[in-house]
Write a structure and sequence with these properties.
Length: 427
């Protein structure tokens, strides 16, 4: 009996090695390695943790598994744990997998939670999309939200979690990587898969942190496919659009962009003013500060906390003079026209020397015209002064550039939004 059991174990190890040689590492470690291998007579039996895993392996990897089994003169059977496999000796008696997720705060549904996100006209679209996906199943899953740091992506994800119907799972990208790795180490990968799929809405915040992690990306891509096939909702947030994500192959970028992609713009001056007044800052102080604080929600939160703490600790109302002294290291200095032009050059990806020189390429000309239009609205400069800052252009050239940009804004909403954002930053 011992000799037979030893021979069976040897055969099973050879079979596993043969399967691993014909599959990529990610698929083998995620789906095949956790299976229970057994030989019953002339049949290779693979025992999965649950029916979902058995069905998936049977539909995706059956050809490879059958070919390897045939090389050893065996048939193939994929079964589920608990079924009567055979009466022979068991070669791999694993315990039933149990996955215990990290502790999460249970949030009761609150339909008014979106009031916490202070919206502007540019963010009306993404806010409506978030409310729609929180209300129930939609046709545009996954919802991919992107924007710079501090624009409110994570806040929108929190709002969806708090107001979504049914069971919602929300993870950060780093948390998903850690939990996936832990489940592989603990041999509870199938239980982890079941946990992630047993929901109505799955939210992953900061998807860019998955970049370069091949096995995790493969698992997450399959998770999105399975959730969509089951009619579930998926929400993703990132700092850039899907096509600009680095460290992801084209398949994942395409999958991320297959639903609805919506951007979130940085807080405008009015949004910053409302955020500060909601935090208890006096109206006149909030109005002045909103013009001199960068459009970063995290920074605004820190400013409000500092003002509130000063008021409580010192027992006096924070005036504009006190606020300027408190926030001397935070408030932006008044920008010169040249500094504005250099900032816009960096934002538009063109060289300052090209804009102020004789560059006539299409991209440089468009960028120069956009800057002239921005300076006209954001400053009190005359057309002659604007022309001088943009490379000694004459009055007529500036006037023509502004008229051209106004025409383009009527048909190009992306360009219009970009110009409006630069105007807010220059004011």
């Amino acid at each position: 009996m011992q000799v037979a059991a030893k021979k069976m174990m040897t055969d099973l190890e050879q079979i596993k090695g043969a399967i691993a040689a014909k599959m990529d590492v990610a698929n083998y470690s995620s789906w095949i390695a956790p299976l229970q291998f057994d030989i019953c007579g002339d049949t290779l039996v693979l025992v999965a943790q649950n029916q979902f895993s058995a069905d998936f392996i049977g539909s995706v990897h059956k050809n490879v598994l059958s070919a390897v089994a045939a090389d050893f003169g065996l048939n193939l059977k994929i079964s589920v744990r608990g079924a009567n496999i055979c009466s022979g000796p068991v070669a791999n008696d694993n315990n039933v997998q149990v996955y215990a997720p990290v502790a999460q705060t249970v949030v009761e549904a609150d339909k008014n939670v979106f009031d916490a996100f202070i919206s502007c006209e540019e963010n009306a679209f993404v806010l409506s999309a978030c409310k729609k996906i929180a209300a129930g199943q939609v046709s545009f899953s996954p919802l991919f939200i992107y924007g710079p740091a501090g624009c409110g992506k994570s806040l929108l994800a929190d709002c969806i979690e708090a107001s979504a119907n049914g069971r919602t799972i929300k993870m950060s990208g780093g948390q998903f990587v850690a939990e996936f790795t832990r489940s592989l180490h603990d041999k509870s990968i199938f239980a982890f898969k079941d946990f992630c799929r047993n929901c109505d809405t799955f939210i992953l915040d900061d998807v860019q942190t998955l970049a370069g992690k091949r096995a995790t990306c493969e698992e997450f891509m399959q998770l999105i496919v399975d959730l969509r096939a089951a009619g579930k909702n998926v929400v993703l947030t990132a700092n850039v659009a899907p096509s600009n994500l680095s460290g992801f192959d084209r398949r994942m970028q395409s999958l991320f962009a297959s639903g609805l992609v919506a951007d979130v713009v940085a807080p405008t001056a009015n949004v910053k003013r409302v955020m500060l007044t909601r935090a208890g800052v006096a109206e006149d102080v909030a109005l002045s500060l909103s013009m001199r604080i960068a459009g970063d929600g995290h920074l605004l939160s820190g400013v409000a906390t500092k003002i509130k703490a000063y008021s409580e600790l010192m027992g006096e109302k924070v005036t504009l003079e006190i606020a300027q002294r408190l926030l001397a290291d935070t408030l932006q200095k008044a920008k010169t026209p040249i500094a504005m032009v250099k900032s816009m050059c960096e934002k538009l990806g063109v060289a300052y020397d090209a804009v102020c020189g004789k560059g006539r390429s299409r991209g440089v000309v468009l960028a120069r015209q956009m800057m002239m239009a921005v300076l006209k609205v954001a400053t009190n400069m005359s057309l002659t002064e604007i022309g001088r800052v943009c490379g000694d252009r004459d009055h007529a050239t500036v006037l023509y550039a502004i008229s051209q940009v106004e025409k383009m804004k009527q048909t190009d909403l992306v360009l219009a939004a970009q110009i409006n954002q630069m105007i807010e930053e220059c004011r």
